[in-house]
């Protein structure tokens, strides 16, 4: 019986001592030296300025699975197998037409379905190959040549996000919302 009382007293003493010591705070230490500046959060992200769509970059129309299609080729040597299989390439277009005041400045992500050169629905998408970004353009009604998008109507921009960005980081913003992407990576819109 005496051993039980002694072990109870020791346990109570230890618990009280731990509570008293846990509440004590020592003096504040001296701040350490400032470390070197870190790397910018978008150090590996590659992006273009807003670029005019020049007519000579458009292909002639050709038959692609029963659709007359045109392609706009952009040489971009950083598009390699690592980017194609592990990275992300975002392509945006914005309306710069002065005639469409309600749409002026509107930025949209490719792929998109719009009415650009005709009143019918038209598809704008992206194909990627080593060293090349292609904007693809065709009518959805399966018919005629969609024509080319005049440089006076739209300009484009692309953002390349290399592999190595954790999925949780990428999901902190909406990749289909241009201003969300530029804000996240610190890119001047």
Question: What this model shows, in words?
Answer:
The chain has 4 helices and 10 strands. It is an alpha+beta fold. Helices cover 21% and strands 29% of the residues. The strands form 2 sheets. Strands 1, 2, 5, 6 and 10 form a 5-stranded antiparallel sheet that branches. A 5-stranded antiparallel sheet has the order 3-4-9-8-7, with no helix packed on it. The chain is elongated, with a radius of gyration of 29 Å.
Features:
189 residues; alpha+beta; five-stranded antiparallel sheet; 4 helices; 10 strands; 21% helix; 29% strand; elongated
What percent of residues are in strands?
A: 25-35%
Radius of gyration from CA coordinates: 29 Å
Low-confidence segments = none
Biggest pleated sheet: 5 strands, antiparallel
Mean pLDDT: 80
Give the overall form. elongated
Number of domains: 1
The number of distinct β-strands equals: 10
> What would you call the structural class?
alpha+beta
What's the assembly state of these chains? single chain
- Helical percentage: 10-25%
Written as H for each helix and E for each strand, in order along the chain, the element string is: HEEEEHEEEEEEHH
| Tally of helical runs | 4
Distance between the termini: 79 Å
Brief synopsis:
With 189 residues, this protein is of the alpha+beta class. The protein has one domain (46-185).
Fold blueprint:
Blueprint: H1 2-23, E1 46-47, E2 51-52, E3 62-64, E4 67-75, H2 81-86, E5 88-95, E6 107-109, E7 112-114, E8 122-129, E9 132-139, E10 154-161, H3 167-170, H4 178-185
């Amino acid at each position: 019986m005496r051993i039980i009382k002694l072990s109870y007293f020791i346990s109570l003493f230890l618990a009280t001592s731990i509570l008293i010591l846990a509440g004590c705070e020592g003096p504040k230490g001296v701040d350490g030296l400032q470390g070197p500046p870190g790397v910018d959060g978008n150090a590996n992200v590659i992006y273009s300025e807003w670029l005019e769509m020049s007519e000579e970059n458009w292909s002639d129309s050709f038959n692609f699975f029963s659709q007359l299609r045109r392609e706009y080729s952009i040489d971009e040597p950083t598009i390699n197998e690592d980017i194609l299989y592990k990275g992300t390439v975002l392509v945006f277009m914005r309306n710069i037409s002065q005639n469409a005041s309600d749409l002026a400045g509107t930025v949209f992500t490719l792929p998109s379905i719009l009415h650009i050169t005709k009143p019918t629905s038209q598809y704008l998408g992206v194909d990627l190959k080593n060293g090349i970004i292609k904007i693809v353009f065709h009518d959805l009604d399966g018919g005629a040549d969609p024509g080319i998008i005049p440089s006076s109507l739209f300009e484009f921009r692309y953002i390349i996000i290399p592999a190595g960005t954790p999925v949780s980081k990428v999901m902190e913003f909406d990749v289909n919302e241009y201003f969300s992407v530029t804000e996240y990576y610190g890119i001047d819109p």
